[in-house]
Amino acid sequence: MRILLIEDDQEAAAYLAKGLREAGHNVDHAANGTDGLFLATSERYDVMVVDRMLPGLDGLTIIQTLRTAGNATPVLILSALGKVDDRVRGLKAGGDDYLVKPYAFAELIARIEALGRRVTSNQPDTKLKVEDLEMDLLARTVARASRDIDLQPREFRLLEYLMRHAGQVVTRTMLLENVWEYHFDPQTNLIDVHISRLRQKVDKDFDQALIHTVRGAGYTLRAAR
Amino acid sequence: MRPASFPLPPLLRATTFRLALSYLGIFTVSAMALLALVSWSTSVFIEWQVQETVEAEATGLSEQYRERSIQGLAEVIGNRANQDLERRAVYLLLAPDGTRIAGNLFGWPNEPGDASGWVRFTIERMDDAHFATEVLARTYELPENYKLLVGRSMHDARRVKSAINRALGWGLALTVLLGIIGGYFTSRHMLTRVEAMSRTARRIVGGDMTSRMKLTGTRDEFDQLATSFNEMMDEIERLVEGIRTVTDNIAHDLRTPLNRLRSRIDVALMTKTDTADLRRTLEETVIEADRLLATFSALLAISNAESGQRLHNFQPLNPAQLAQDVVELYEPLAEEKGIAMACHADPDLSLQGDRHLMFQALANLVDNAVKYTPPGGTVAVTVAGTSSGIEVTVADSGPGIPADSRDKVLDRFVRLDSTRSTPGNGLGLSLVKAVARLHGANLVLDDNAPGLLVRMVFTRVA
Description:
The complex is a heterodimer. By secondary structure, chain A is an alpha/beta fold. Chain A folds into two domains: about 1-115, Response regulator (Rossmann fold, 3-Layer(aba) Sandwich), CATH 3.40.50; about 125-220, Orthogonal Bundle (Arc Repressor Mutant, subunit A). Chain A has helices at about 10-20, 35-40, 60-70, 85-90, 105-115, 155-165, 170-180, 190-200; strands at about 1-5, 25-30, 45-50, 75-80, 95-100, 125-130, 135, 140-145, 145-150, 170, 210-215, 220. Chain A has a five-stranded parallel beta sheet, with helices on both faces. Chain A has a four-stranded antiparallel beta sheet with strand order 6-7-8-9, with helices on one face. Chain A has a three-stranded antiparallel beta sheet with strand order 10-12-11. In chain A, helix 2 (about 35-40) packs parallel to helix 3 and helix 6 (about 155-165) packs across helix 7 (about 170-180). The longest helix of chain A has 13 residues, at about 10-20. The relative contact order of chain A is 0.10. In chain B, strands 2-1-5-4-3 form a five-stranded antiparallel beta sheet. In chain B, strands 7-9-10-12-11 form a five-stranded mixed beta sheet. A two-stranded antiparallel sheet of chain B has the order 6-8. Chain B is rod-shaped and about 160 Å long. The interface of A and B includes residues 185 and 188 of A.
């Protein structure tokens, strides 16, 4: 993916750019808001990573300017401001996701990839399919190899999120924010327990496991390599 | 900008004194208006009395005239003029040719009379050339062109009037004087107390946080102010003390893991050469650093909740929905530990709050309950409406908290498990306390016999 990184902290930017390039992405870096806005309007990117506090133009102004100009490139906001209303303001300005510093690199790359591969179609999906796992979003049913799987409502939403991001790494925080819709900090490995329950139903009776743990990052749903 | 120097002494600057002066001014003006009215109506009354006397005398004289004709009248006037040693009465009877028949007035006055015959003129007193007096008199035309004048000296009336005016003047002067003296003493009294208060405030500013305002015991406004001020200082002292404790605790509790982190890296640098070994150490170090960062975020969340800056995020919440979501989130974990979870929530309740903070607080309580309850135990969450509000409880069948430690565990970094064998940073209940406080809820830790019962009581907002 082509990624634009607008970040004034040189050390953090170098570390991020290195990590993203090693993950196979093409990274452009701007060290201030003005250069960032110039690059964002003159080039095409798949995802932009924008620091909130920048010299020149601040991050939110850049995003607002782009959105007003009809640029719909997905934006991930990086910020040291972690309060709920900071987050709300960031998303209102046109950001697509919000990550509070300090963050783990695995979290950042998972979110960037989720944003970059997000399908923006007006037609809502009615069916999801990964290998032999099928989900009917209208009938709210799940079947694997034509065998019905009975899921609780929350398990259904958890699996739906994993299937929509099939092949991508999904972190525990992303699951909490998107499946449970609470911004909170669990003190225990809650999500792991929920995933292991889901595995019991989706993977246990089948030869090929679909839900995989990615060490130090989260989970991914895909066919075994 | 304040003027560099203000020429008035402190007393004259005192609000009370200025207030007293302006009241005095208003009072003086109205008192003077009242005095003018009294003085005016007195003189009207005196004049009216003189006129009555003159008319009564004239009536008497006209009777004499009717009975005894002009000679009798002249005789009576002569007698009366002689009897009146004080010479208050003035008479003059003139013949048609203008000669004086009787009376103690030498000539007819030159001043013109009014329509009903009243005339006002000044005479030199007959026995004292230096003494002039005003006379109010009435003139009568008698048959055959005889003319009669009956009058009274206004001398006494003037004396009464001026005596009354003098008395009123003195009264006014005395009032003003007493007002100034009273204002002076009242404001000096107030000034003394205000100065005592500002001295105390300056002492506190100077660093003596234990200084308090003195009460006089009269329960007046100053005592009320001093009481509020002292209560405010108690609260500030408590907060400052709290901050100090927290800072000490943070320094202490964060130094330990930082030291551990450092020595782990140190040891790895000195002893490990194998890449796989170094990698494992690095991974452990990241986990340790993440724990530290989580502790910092928890501290930040607590101080955010304590500063009450999130009020504008408040929205109507369904506490039952929150309770069910928390229970559903923890249910698999509890099941894994062999703990039964229950949720009894009245779905028709609503309260104003911050959704994410409330969820975090409830999750912290349930997390603790699941963590400390042994296998085979139970954890129950209830949401119920009471007469005064909404009560949210989390009850477990674990070891509970001894009654004397229940307040302490709400403080930051306090963990009863001295071996610190269970994971945790000692901030969970502190956040619950801060969130409860932000929502105006009362947090009570109780004995569940056995176990812990945490009660959050939200008072109903009208």
